[in-house]
Amino acid sequence: MSTIASEMPVIGDPHRLGRYGAGPEPADRGPAPKRVVVGYGFWIFLISDFVMFSGFFAAFAVLGSATADGPSGRDIFDIHNVAIETACLLLSSFACGMASIAVEGRRTLPAQFWLVITATLGLAFLVLEIHEFIGLIAQGDGPQRSAFLSAFFTLVGCHGLHVTVGLLWLLTMMAQISTIGLAPNVIRRLRCFSLFWHALDIIWVAVFTVVYLIGVGK
Amino acid sequence: MSGQHEAEWGGEVAPGDEHKVDSGASAGVRGYLIGFALSSLLTAASFGIVGTTLIWAPGIPVALAVFAVAQMGVHLVFFLHVSSGPDNTNNILALAFGVMVVAIVISGSLWIMYHLNQNMMPMNTITDLHLQH
After folding, report:
1. Do A43 and A26 share a structural domain?
2. Contacts 24+ apart (CB under 8 A), A166-169
3. What span, in angstroms and rounded, lies between the C-alpha atoms of B13 and B9?
4. B130 lies in a domain?
5. Residue B56 and residue B35 share a domain
6. Of A16, A169, B45, B83, which alpha carbon lies 20 to 30 A from A27's?
7. Number of structural domains chain B divides into
8. Residues of B in contact with A61 (CB under 8 A)
9. B119/B94 same-domain check
10. Is A56 within 8 Å of A45 (Cβ atoms)?
11. Of A62, A191, A204, which to mutate for an interface test with B (greatest number of B Cβ within 10 Å)?
12. Residue B79 and residue A16: Cβ atoms within 8 Å?
């Protein structure tokens, strides 16, 4: 009877906020499946990660012009390098999406193939970013040069650190797929990973806009 | 028993769930392709508009911000599968709260620090005071 009630069209409360008239009361339905609980918990983590990044963005926005007579963004940023980094990350995000479709269809080999592409493009992004950082530090524009550069290295470095951790996580998941296979717990972890990877791309959109493009235009 | 359990929660969607119920993998691929095309377009527009004389120069940061917000929306909808459907209410509410906190932190910091800058003694006056000793 309860299943029939839940299939009925919901009229009074389309968003089921009160859940009245839309299937049984939550107390009668038992706990949500682990898939929903895990995904929602990871969603909360991602949003708290956005909040943490907002602090770094605020610091960069406040200190962006505090160059202490050192170089400004226009002097040191290489927009072509940033464009290639952006393309790498965007393609990597797309490959990750293809991988999660393969995972939903329980197709192991295509999933591994797309995860390899995801990892390769992520690694390319990281190599380009580290190359940029090493170049800046070598010409004396390291984080200790000015408040602007401190904020720059903190913000962009923190994103790079997230990508590094994501790559390690991705390699772990590929190892788990090949040893355990696409078991329910592995699939849950892969779902969380793809949320993480797409979220990093969203943060990168904010980074290349606020730090690089607006910085070069100043 | 567990089948009934799943059916009762059939309307719930975890963040990032693939839309696979009705149309299978090809619809999923199409969604990612649309998202990828849109965000490539917005990225290209962002990089293209820097340094052009196509629009009024002080308007460029505003255009960049608009492109960035649009691209974040595209990523949320097509890659993270956030939708306005009834099954997504909890995810949207959590996201809306996060966006509110982010907006308060960034705009509040800029606002406060701008006013603190206004109230600071100018740098050359401080140097003059040091020289008088």
Report:
1. no
2. A166/A122, A166/A193, A166/A196, A166/A197, A166/A200, A167/A119, A167/A122, A167/A123, A167/A126, A169/A193, A169/A196
3. 9
4. yes
5. yes
6. B83
7. 2
8. 106, 109-110
9. yes
10. no
11. A62
12. no
Q: What is the CATH number of the domain that holds A129?
A: 1.20.120.80
B68 touches chain A (CB under 8 A): yes
Q: For position B56, what pLDDT does the model report?
A: 86
Q: List the domain range (segments joined by +) for residue A24.
A: 1-30
Q: Chain B closest CA to A122's CA: distance in Å?
A: 16
Say whether both B23 and B65 belong to one domain.
yes
Is residue B32 over pLDDT 80?
Answer: yes
User: Could you tell me if residue B67 is inside a domain?
Assistant: yes
Q: Which residues span the domain enclosing B44? A: 17-81
Tell me whether residues B5 and A33 touch, CB distance under 8 A: yes
Which amino acid would we find at residue B9? Answer: W
* Residue B4 falls inside a structural domain: no
**pLDDT tens per residue, range A2-27:** 444 445 554 555 555 555 445 555 55
Query: Same domain for A44 and A142?
Result: yes
| Test the B interface: residue of A90, A92, A155, A193 with most B CBs within 10 Å | A90
Orientation angle between helical segments A184-207 and A34-63, nearest 10 degrees? 20
More confident residue, A24 or A57: A57
CA distance A155 to B107: 17
ipTM rounded to 2 decimals: 0.83
